[in-house]
Specification:
4-stranded antiparallel sheet, mainly beta
Length: 119
C-alpha cells in the first residue's frame, strides 16, 4: 500500500509563499489522481487542487492564479506551490491519492501539514 507524507508547512506572513511536498512511498502512477485538500477546525475539508495521471489540473476558485500543483514522476512527488498567501489560507493541508478500483474509489491520505498565514 502506497503511503503519502506531506511536508513544507509552516508560518508565513500574508503575501508570502510556501511549497508543500507530498512524497509517495511507491509510484504515484498507481493513483488516478493526487489532490491537496485543506481543513480548518470545525469546517469541512475542501479540495484545493488536483492533478491526474495524465497531468490535467483543477483548482478551487479561491486559489486560482495563486497556487500551482505539479508532479515529479521520477521522485514520486506532488507539489503545491502557494504564492500570495492570505490569512484565509490558514489550515491543515492534506495530500490524498485517489485510485479507481472497479465501481469504487479508494482514497489514501497523508497525515497533514499545518499552514499558518499571519496578517
Amino acid at each position: 500500500q502506497v503511503q503519502l507524507v506531506e511536508s513544507g508547512g509552516g508560518l508565513v506572513q500574508a503575501g508570502g509563499s510556501l511549497r508543500l511536498t507530498c512524497a509517495a512511498s511507491g509510484s504515484i502512477f498507481s493513483f488516478n489522481a493526487v489532490a491537496w485538500y485543506r481543513q480548518d477546525p470545525g469546517l469541512q475539508r475542501e479540495l484545493v487542487a488536483s492533478i491526474t495521471s495524465d497531468g490535467s489540473t483543477h483548482y478551487a476558485d479561491s486559489v486560482k492564479g495563486r497556487f500551482t500543483i505539479s508532479r515529479d514522476n521520477a521522485k514520486n512527488t506532488v507539489y503545491l506551490q502557494m504564492n500570495s498567501l492570505k490569512s484565509e489560507d490558514t489550515a491543515v493541508y492534506y495530500c490524498a491519492g485517489h485510485k479507481v478500483a472497479g465501481y469504487k474509489i479508494n482514497d489514501y491520505w497523508g497525515q497533514g501539514t499545518q499552514v499558518t498565514v499571519s496578517s
